[in-house]
């Protein structure tokens, strides 16, 4: 049985190989370790190896682990769906929020971000495969939402996040990530200083790196299969 350490090393090596294959700089890609459903002790183990960024989907679960890990200088990313009644704690306890898909959520996060903290780093969630997932905006909406976020002083728009429809076909994976990248380039063309493409998970991160991902969000390939029941996962 592999340990978190062995799996983490293997993922880091795969990221480096994909960067080289794509002709990208070493360290062009940041590994975001997705620790939902895994205990604080697993996060502590990965942190001890040098893992800095951790992603959580469910607020209550995340807050509990943050308390247990308050002695570590972790960068916390909220990557789950954002309910408007949870924006205050999310704006207070996270460094990044990846799933912004409407201006109301952006407004509420902006209003709740504490004055003594740096601006909240945010990504707009783009939905390029329309039916397969309910969350995320289309390209046109993403451009409008970016204009709006640019007016909010406590948010800093970093780029786009996407969860394409799962497929085992690497060509199809690349085509989907390519579509995200095109919208990202449109954002840049409109003058937004965006630098982040958050795309790629355990099953498809090498393809995402080929298409320019700067953050890959990898969970099960590091921590193992998630075991908690679907029901408890959906209740925050
Ligand atoms: C759970 C999750 C991941 C990680 O998924 P794995 O397949 O375990 O790597 C990445 N991004 C988001 C938004 C997630 O919810």
SSE map:
Elements: H1 4-21, E1 30-34, H2 40-49, E2 53-56, H3 59-68, E3 75-78, H4 87-93, E4 96-100, H5 103-112, E5 120-126, H6 139-149, E6 155-162, H7 170-189, E7 196-198, H8 205-210, E8 215-218, H9 220-223, H10 230-234
Parallel strand pairs: 1-2, 1-8, 2-3, 3-4, 4-5, 5-6, 6-7
Bound molecules: pyridoxal-5'-phosphate.
Q: Tell me the strand order in the biggest sheet.
A: 7-6-5-4-3-2-1-8
Number of E-state strands:
8
Annotated CATH topology: TIM Barrel
Task: Give the proportion of residues in helices.
Answer: 40-55%
Ligand types: pyridoxal-5'-phosphate
CATH architecture title: Alpha-Beta Barrel
SSE run: HEHEHEHEHEHEHEHEHH
Nearest-integer average pLDDT: 94
Query: Compute the gyration radius: what is it?
Result: 17 Å
Question: What features would you describe in this structure?
Answer:
The protein has ten helices and eight strands. The protein is of the alpha/beta class. 43% of the residues lie in helices and 17% in strands. The model has no long low-confidence stretch (mean pLDDT 94). It has one domain: Alanine racemase (TIM Barrel, Alpha-Beta Barrel), CATH 3.20.20.10. 41% of the residues are buried. Bound molecules: pyridoxal-5'-phosphate (PLP). Pyridoxal-5'-phosphate is lined by residues 34, 36, 57, 79, 163, 201-202, 217-221. Pyridoxal-5'-phosphate binds at residues 34, 36, 57, 79, 163, 201-202, 217-221.
